Amino acid sequence: MTAKPKVWVSRPLFPDVLARLAEHFDVDAEAVEHRHSADELKRKLAGVDGAVVGLADRIDAAVLEGNTRLKVVANLGVGYNNLDLDALTRAGIVASNTPDVLNESVADYAWALMLAAARRVSAAERWLRAGQWPGSNMRFDDWLGLPVHGRTLGILGMGRIGQGIARRAAGFDMRVLYHNRSRLPEMVERECQATLVSKSELLRQVDYLVLVLPFTPENRHAIGAPELAQMKPSAVLVNIARGGIVDDAALALALREGKLAAAGLDVFEGEPMVHPDLLTLDNAVLSPHIASASEETRRAMANLAADNVIAALGFGEAAGKPPTALNPAVLIRGSAHKA
Ligand code: DGY
Known about the structure:
Radius of gyration: 22 Å
Domain D-isomer specific 2-hydroxyacid dehydrogenase catalytic: 9-314
Helix content: 25-40%
Number of domains: 2
GO molecular function, one term: gluconate 2-dehydrogenase activity
CATH topology of the largest domain: Rossmann fold
Number of strands: 12
Bound molecules: (2R)-2,3-dihydroxypropanoic acid
Strand order of the largest sheet: 8-7-6-9-10-11-12
Shape: globular
Domain D-isomer specific 2-hydroxyacid dehydrogenase NAD-binding: 112-291
Family: Belongs to the D-isomer specific 2-hydroxyacid dehydrogenase family.
Distance between the termini: 20 Å
EC number: 1.1.1.215
Largest sheet: 7 strands, parallel
Strand content: 5-15%
Order of helices and strands: EHEHEHEHEHHEHEHEHEHEHEHEHH
């Protein structure tokens, strides 16, 4: 009997998804959350044929060096800036992500942050929980927030998540502007009721700016002090994309000095660390990178990652055709050292 291929799962995952993997593989799944060092990653990946990894696992050339066994790395996330795709491709390793299955949950969450930041939900709750309501003589003009309905929404990065955010804006009777590398097809623009503008027009005109860009070296600090200075002081910034797209220190300063009204942030530069100034600001609504975290969506992401590993290692109906491979060229040319 030939031994089953080995698969490492770097973080605890739904038992039924692990059971699907175990039908084909000898599965080593981490039972507790743990941040793996580069050395640990290198060691773990050296002994397996496939891996399911999380956004905190940085898979780069150094981690892959000397690895002649690994054939597939499935990322639990649509964003894959934790993967060095060139290094994986050079090593003949298939990489995959989890696009589409999370679009609607992330779009929902962008709205949750927008509304919470506009209407000061977190600060008001902190105040209430601190027992400050009784005896406060709360005034009619306390806790005033910003209007959302009828305002202008801007979306920077108009992929499928951005489009989902834009579609929801019709219910709030908002004007929608977007900026993207390329213009959307007319039909999609019509569906989203969205108009393409330059980045600086977007910054200057919107009341709410939602960032949905991928993190690339060019997008680092796409929103920094110069961009924040172009925005209305009454505007709200929402980042559900990636830490590092915003210069968090510049953002904290703008929020403190009243140059920007509020922010809703799900991602941070250097997370899980959060810039200490942001932690002190009542006009920043902060959450720990949970935009995709609904039961249905996280389960779909886990299953899609499993589908990719199963197919890449030659099992199941899609054998040899992992559904969301990021470097399909590896599949076409195959991997010399692993053939
Ligand atoms: C992703 O999938 O990239 C999201 O950031 C996860 O929540």
